[in-house]
Amino acid sequence: MLLIETIREHVLAVLPELFEGSFGPSDFQVSQTKPEFEGDYTVVLFSLVKKLKKSPDEIGKLLGEKLTEKYPDLYTGYSLLKGFMNLTIAEPYWVDMLSKHYTDPCFGKGEMRNQKVMVEYSSPNTNKPLHLGHLRNNFLGWSIAEILKANGYEVIKSCIVNDRGIHICKSMIAWQRFANGATPESSGMKGDHFVGDYYVKFNDAYKKEVEGLVSQGMKQEEAEKEAPIMKATQEMLLQWEKGDPEVIDLWRKMNGWVYSGFDITYKTIGSDFDVIYYESDTYLLGKDAVEDGLAKGVFFRKDDGSVWIDLTADGLDEKLLLRRDGTSVYITQDIGLAKKKYEQYKIDQSIYVIGDEQNYHMKVLKLICQKLGLPYADGIHHLSYGMVELPTGKMKSREGTVVDADDLVQEMVNISAQHTQELGKVKDFPEEALQELYETIGLGALKFFLLRVDPKKKMIFNPEESIDFHGFTGPFIQYTHARIKSILRKEQADTGYTLAKTGLLPLEKELLVSIEQYGMVLKQSAEELNPSVIAIYAYNLAKTFNSFYAEHSVANAESEEKKQLRLRICGMTAVVLSSSLQLLGMSVPERM
């Protein structure tokens, strides 16, 4: 049990002994004491003051004395400050925690619970390679999945591939017109880059045709509809939907090129999935839900035959479910896929990692599923995140101004190599190990930079800033871990040594208190679906360790007792840093 939960239980146990009435967890809060005040954990008394109609000092004095009297092995004292009671935890607690867990890789992680969660992320289009925005999406989704696992959930990682539609046909038409039979192999290109180039070529050709029609006197809007290449693309989409063998063959061939490219990128960035859905298989799903909604009176049919739902009473608008020709729209497909996921896996929760431009769509999806009374409706959760921008502004795929994921990863590796060589501490590394280190640092810097920001916030990505070895970065934490491992290679803790229960110096205790918080951080990160909670914690833990190490020698400690204590503190810090970074998808080097 987390210490914060133990304190909560103790407070709940003594309150009825001191005051009349019934009490619950909502009557007070427990939090870590702020560094500027004496104590380790704070009980916030304001709700009790209102309920008991007594002064905060009177409540705090009675509560503090009762806790220290009833649980003397855990609490050595308390102090009061304007509605806050700060408890001091007995030193033996910290030493016992250290002795039990300093080599425990599962420290802080939750017990298994009977809850199944699906996390959907990535969702690429098969007309272009993955870009910087996809990286934030993949890193968020993968990390959330791992954080939930660490909290005892059974997790299924899923991806929906957008492999059909007008955007795919644009690349196909451009390839037919401009490629002269070229392939990724003949061009020496990754398949996703190859196809993405033809998406840009389509846009270039389309703009020229529109400009030409406008110069002949046609209005802009009409020219955009009448451009020959656009009309050919729309015809190709109709042929695909009719199952034209030639179109289907080209579609399969070009998608195959893209999938090969995606696989390389996913392997490089460490993204994986337990199940992949394809829009070409799911776009007809959901029509049975429409019939069910009509029967229940949730949906209505207009005179032209189209099917709608009226959400104006919910503060939204009317939403189309089926067009008048009977074809479905995205929301219909999403209802059908949500049903399929539930039937396949019986999930308790379905988390969609999708950018904040889809907030309205996801709100409508959940609301429609709830109105239909579907068993998975309440479990739908949209993890909305802000877009990633560059210092120069937004990216546009069709204009070829996106930051390609592969290029960015390679740039990060190159910057990592430059910074590492400047430090001059890896001259004895063999070439293969050196390259692996550059990749570990470069990719780790990228992941940490994209995950250290609350998902809800937009962010600007700066490659150079992300790889600073001394700032709020992944490499700073990785370097701290490598430093600890260097200490432990020279000296190892004596497992048979029994530590004294008292005598902790301030920085020793500060480190142990910070380490003990890890379980609470994992829980908070899962509840908020927010990896930045772990990123910030890991950075602060690394900072505290560096302060401790600057102040106190380990190998030349003032006594054998202190040496063994500090070696265990080093070991446990390394365990927690490694665990934290792994949940962010980062590797931890043994040497740097």
What's the structural blueprint in terms of helices and strands?
Layout: H1 3-18, E1 29-32, E2 41-44, H2 46-52, H3 56-70, E3 75-81, E4 84-89, H4 91-101, E5 116-120, H5 132-150, E6 154-161, H6 166-178, H7 184-187, H8 191-215, H9 220-226, H10 228-242, H11 245-269, E7 275-278, H12 279-282, H13 287-296, E8 300-301, E9 307-310, E10 318-322, H14 330-345, E11 349-355, H15 359-371, E12 380-385, E13 388-389, H16 405-423, H17 431-451, E14 459-460, H18 463-466, H19 474-490, H20 506-516, H21 518-528, H22 532-551, H23 560-583
Parallel strand pairs: 5-6, 5-11, 6-7, 11-12, 13-14
Antiparallel strand pairs: 1-2, 2-4, 3-4, 8-9, 9-10
Helix pairs in contact: 1-3, 4-20, 4-23, 6-8, 6-10, 8-9, 8-11, 13-14, 16-17, 19-22, 19-23, 20-22, 20-23, 21-22, 22-23
Summarize the structure.
With 592 residues, the protein is an alpha/beta fold.
Description:
By secondary structure, this protein is an alpha/beta fold. Among the domains are: 3-89, Gyrase A, domain 2 (2-Layer Sandwich); 165-277, no CATH class; 405-583, Isoleucyl-tRNA Synthetase, Domain 1. It has helices spanning 3-18, 46-52, 56-70, 91-101, 132-150, 166-178, 184-187, 191-215, 220-226, 228-242, 245-269, 279-282, 287-296, 330-345, 359-371, 405-423, 431-451, 463-466, 474-490, 506-516, 518-528, 532-551, 560-583, and strands at 29-32, 41-44, 75-81, 84-89, 116-120, 154-161, 275-278, 300-301, 307-310, 318-322, 349-355, 380-385, 388-389, 459-460. It has a five-stranded parallel beta sheet, with helices on both faces.
